[in-house]
């Protein structure tokens, strides 16, 4: 990370993490707010964010809606057994569907668990959830060997990632410290998402 940002960026990057760990505020001009907090111009702030994104510290900036408040109270993790050689293509296909919020490739756990493609779907009713699952089955066609769906039974407390102070210093380039930053909030605010380095396959997000 020290190769991606200059020493003068390091302190600003640490401060940016502190300011955005809970998500950006819901204001008309969030970048102006962040710039004022950093004592930078808006252009300088966006340039810093661009450098961090290009360096791999930030994957993307996106809104994280609370789907429960939007009426989507039925959730199901669909799991699919598809050919390993086709899973990336099929994951990208499913991940583009509007009802899918997350789509992941995951390792099988044979002989108990033979599914290698996961897709989280949401609906306003169980019927809507079942319809979406049926639609995904049609999309996968003959590539689907088997599938199942794990349905949410209760809502647990959702809290965005909070990095401890030692990790908040990561963008200073201190050796041995992780180099990823995430700020997410489940209340509909904007979020800076990390650029993960998963050890198992690909992730496809809607």
UniProtKB/TrEMBL annotation:
EC number: 4.1.1.111
Annotated catalysed reactions: siroheme + 2 H(+) = 12,18-didecarboxysiroheme + 2 CO2
Keywords on record: Lyase
Region called Disordered, residue ranges: 167-206
The UniProt record lists the keyword GTP-binding: no
Pathway membership: Porphyrin-containing compound metabolism
Siroheme decarboxylase AsnC-like ligand binding domain boundaries: 69-157
Key word Lyase present: yes
Siroheme decarboxylase NirL-like HTH domain residues: 14-59
Biased composition (Polar residues): 169-200
Signal sequence annotation: none
Domain of life (superkingdom): Bacteria
InterPro entries: AsnC_trans_reg2, HTH-Siroheme_Decarb, NirdL-like_HTH
Family the entry assigns: Belongs to the Ahb/Nir family.
Subunit field text: Probably forms a complex composed of NirD, NirL, NirG and NirH. All proteins are required for the total conversion of siroheme to didecarboxysiroheme.
Known function: Involved in heme d1 biosynthesis. Catalyzes the decarboxylation of siroheme into didecarboxysiroheme.
Name listed for the protein in its UniProt record: siroheme decarboxylase
